[in-house]
Amino acid sequence: MQVLMPQPQIFVERTLALIKPDVVDKEEEIEDLILRSGFLIVQKRKLQLSPEQCSNFYADQYGKVFFPNLTAYMSSGPLVAMVLARHCAVSYWKELLGPSNSVRARRTHPHSLRAIYGTDDLRNALHGSLNISSAEREIQFMFPEVILEPIPAGQRARDYLNLYVKPTLLAGLTALCKEKPADPMTWLADWLIEHNPNKPKLQHQTTEEEYQ
């Protein structure tokens, strides 16, 4: 009896991660943990926010008792902003972060990033978006030049792969088998660049008018 395997599904999310000012010196160490946890760092920049910019970023917290201390803390030095991508990025990043209060995190989630790098409820080392809509707003805030196009999922993703990716990849793999190069990965990468169907084509045509 033939076993019917479910079609592979592609669900990719993006979320915003911030390495806060007091742990910027741990940037490389934290990034290594992020990558080893299955995330792709799509965008990254180091910047320092003014108190006004921090107020705008945390506008949903305005009016709370800790708000002035929060904006002062977040504007006290440079921070690192990153766009992370993976399956269920928002929830996985929140899980990796642990509770917002670092003291509580050390009790209940001792292996979480906030337990390891955070100090207390305010200085908790890292930020993560609460949900997908918050992630979109926060990514746009930190990376205003980025165009957040919807990532295909489900049937749209399969249609995209079948139409644009598989034909070119199949041709490249066929050529690879015929060529049998010593370094197949580099050869295939070069082949895909050369045969990219969406590669811009620049035409420099000289006409008689250009010489008149």
Characterise this structure.
- There is one protein chain.
- 44% of the residues lie in helices and 12% in strands.
- The protein has 212 residues and is of the alpha+beta class.
- The chain folds into 2 domains: 14-142, Nucleoside diphosphate kinase-like domain (Alpha-Beta Plaits), CATH 3.30.70.141; 154-195, cAMP-dependent Protein Kinase, Chain A (Up-down Bundle).
- A 4-stranded antiparallel sheet has the order 2-3-1-4.
- It is elongated and about 65 Å long.
- The relative contact order is 0.15.
The general outline is: elongated
- Order of helices and strands, N to C? EHEHHEHHHEHHH
β-sheet strand percentage:
5-15%
The count of domains is 2
Output the CATH class name of the largest domain.
Alpha Beta
CATH superfamily of the largest domain: Nucleoside diphosphate kinase-like domain
> Overall mean pLDDT score?
85
How many whole angstroms does the radius of gyration measure? 23 Å
CATH fold description of the largest domain: Alpha-Beta Plaits
User: Major sheet: order of its strands?
Assistant: 2-3-1-4
Question: Helical proportion?
Answer: 40-55%
Tally of helical runs: 9
CATH architecture of the largest domain: 2-Layer Sandwich
Structural class: alpha+beta
